[in-house]
Write a structure and sequence with these properties.
By secondary structure, the protein is of the alpha+beta class. Helices cover 33% and strands 26% of the residues. It is globular and about 55 Å long.
Length: 158
């Protein structure tokens, strides 16, 4: 089953409930099992989160349902993260055929008075478009595989 990390922060009401009834955590852990999820580990932490809980769940929908259900009580705020085993990520990176990101730092005058030409892989196009938009400059994108419906060269005016 996929693994998820739940970073939880108690609300004032949640802290009060836990202080008066520490066994409430055990009850919540039973509820996690009732959702068809498996509790892998749970830790009290210092910092912005009070607890980190590692859970295996059948799918994204189940963990989202669990997270919403627990949060709806207004005793805890939860940030749910999918966890990818490093070995899976390494395997995926090895099979990837994506070219590395290459940027040209220099401003070039290819499409009018002030434009910037950038060479980029599909990974950072959105970020680049945002940055160019912030500078109010036209953008020329040159590449073979772009996530936008563009061909080899496109101009996106501000």
């Amino acid at each position: 089953m996929p693994t998820y990390i739940l970073c939880s922060s108690l609300t004032a009401e949640g802290g009060q409930t836990l202080h008066t009834n520490p066994d409430r955590m055990i009850e919540v852990n039973r509820e996690i099992d009732e959702f068809g999820c498996k509790l892998v580990g749970q830790y009290a932490t210092l910092g912005i989160y009070d607890f980190v809980t590692i859970i295996e769940a059948p799918d994204n929908e189940t963990i989202a349902h669990l997270s919403i259900d627990l949060s709806s009580r207004r005793t805890v705020k939860i940030m749910t993260l999918p966890a990818i085993p490093v070995s899976d990520l390494v395997g995926k990176l090895k099979e990837s055929k994506q070219r590395p990101l290459h940027l040209c730092d220099q401003t070039q005058k290819r499409v009018g008075a002030a434009s910037m030409t950038l060479w980029a892989s599909t990974m950072r196009i959105g970020k680049l478009v945002s940055e160019i938009g912030r500078r109010a400059m036209p953008l020329v994108i040159v590449g073979e595989r772009l996530p936008l419906p563009l061909h080899s060269v496109a101009v996106l005016p501000r």
